Amino acid sequence: MKPFIADHPLIQHKVTILRDERTSSKQFRELISEITGLMCYEATRDLPLCEVTVKTPLCETTSHVIAGRKLAFVPILRAGLGMVDGAVELVPNARIGHIGLYRDETTLKPVEYYCKLPGDIGERDVIVLDPMLATGGSAVDAISQIKERKPRSIKFMCIIAAPEGLKALQEAHPDVQIYCAALDEKLNENGYIMPGLGDAGDRIFGTK
Ligand code: PRP
Ligand code: URA
């Protein structure tokens, strides 16, 4: 499935400020939320609608509402937490699951430490949230865990992707639609996205 790479000027502008090493944690968190909201607008474009009758001050008419489709957002801890507010602002009734994973610094392989998903995930469309898609190991693993619970569908949303991660995720989960705000050049020898924005978790939470 072809990934969606955002080309909207507002998203590109905000991503540039995110990359800037001088951006404070406060502003970084605000920008992650804003970009996630804008990306969610795109990721929810295919939600089905149904017709309802509504009475305006002037007359009765038919109009459309979302057809009761159930959504769940699943942030990958820690950095994915930074995307939750922006997503929930757009879809307030969505349920939130959590998957805890960190990358082992030497092997770059994901290490699982937590998984709590909504009980009715089998009836839900899931959007997995993580700002960084680097080697793709974390996203591939998180999506495999979610698939065991058989949701209706899964999408993956990130802010910055490396070509290596995009390829790995597409190969492992070809049925998952991927949304990225920016596609960068490559990974460096430590598995960091270049030019990237550094360590997303540290910048969101002000650690390090
Ligand atoms: C970061 C990021 C992704 C992962 C991406 O998390 O938020 O989850 O790295 O790398 P990958 O595509 O190579 O797996 P990190 O492991 O730094 O954990 P943290 O969010 O707890 O800081
Ligand atoms: N995780 C991050 O936070 N940043 C990267 O560049 C790669 C993985």
Features:
single chain; 208 residues; alpha/beta; nine-stranded mixed β-sheet; two-stranded antiparallel sheet; 31% helix; binds 1-O-pyrophosphono-5-O-phosphono-alpha-D-ribofuranose; binds uracil
Layout of secondary structure:
Blueprint: E1 4-5, H1 9-19, H2 25-43, E2 49-55, E3 60-66, E4 71-77, H3 84-90, E5 95-96, E6 98-103, E7 110-116, E8 125-129, E9 132-133, H4 137-147, E10 153-161, H5 163-172, E11 177-183, E12 186-187, E13 193-194, H6 200-205
Parallel strand pairs: 1-11, 4-5, 4-6, 4-8, 8-10, 9-10, 10-11
Antiparallel strand pairs: 2-3, 6-7, 12-13
Helix pairs in contact: 1-2, 2-3
The structure holds 1-O-pyrophosphono-5-O-phosphono-alpha-D-ribofuranose and uracil.
1-O-pyrophosphono-5-O-phosphono-alpha-D-ribofuranose binds at residues 76-79, 101-103, 108, 110, 130-139, 165, 191, 199-201.
Give the fraction of residues assigned to helices.
Answer: 25-40%
Structure summary, number of beta strands: 13
Order of helices and strands: EHHEEEHEEEEEHEHEEEH
Oligomer kind: single chain
Hey, roughly how much beta strand do the residues contain? 25-35%
If helices are DSSP runs of H or I spanning 4 or more residues, what is the number of helices? Answer: 6
Largest sheet: 9 strands, mixed
pLDDT averaged residue by residue: 96
Ends apart, CA distance between termini: 37 Å
Structural class: alpha/beta
General form: globular
Bound molecules: 1-O-pyrophosphono-5-O-phosphono-alpha-D-ribofuranose, uracil
State Rg.
18 Å
* Low confidence ranges: none
